[in-house]
Amino acid sequence: MSSKGRHSGDGGSFYRDLVIMVLAILAVGALVFFLLFVFAGDTASITTTTSSTTTTSTSTTLGETSTSVVDTSSTTTTSTTIPVRANEDVRVVVLNSIGVAGVAGRFTQELADLGYQTLQADDYRPEQDPTRIWFREGFSAEANQLAQYMLEDSGTETLVEPLPDETLKPGADLIVVLGTGYQE
To answer: Which value, in Å, is the radius of gyration of the alpha carbons in the chain?
Structure first.
């Protein structure tokens, strides 16, 4: 008969399990941070802090060693919303890709009435489907706000995308390309 306690042969597995548990907590925290970062876009900055505290106590009673682990984990998530610029601080140009005479001019006037800085309306080819709002770097929040307005005002669904060509309409922060689904 051995004089060792029944847990004494399993000393390495405790630390292995502890390391696996800490790595799992960190991996879940990293995954949450990544998902929040990807889906937040330019409208919010997400900070996730994960802390983990492990307390280990060991006691020996009559030749047997007992180890207990207390794990306290907490995750705190805070988000800071980046303010959307006022309409007066956003320069918009409206392009007509659907060939309906005057439609870009009329929507440009509507945006001017809302306080946007508007540039001369123009035509665009090829025809787009659906309507698109292209934004310059740093203006995605304003583009999404304008897309929401278009949806609520006329039921026009828009695709919000980064500007595909930086040389297109210099001076405009947002470029609205009216597509086949546009409704006045």
So the answer is: 29
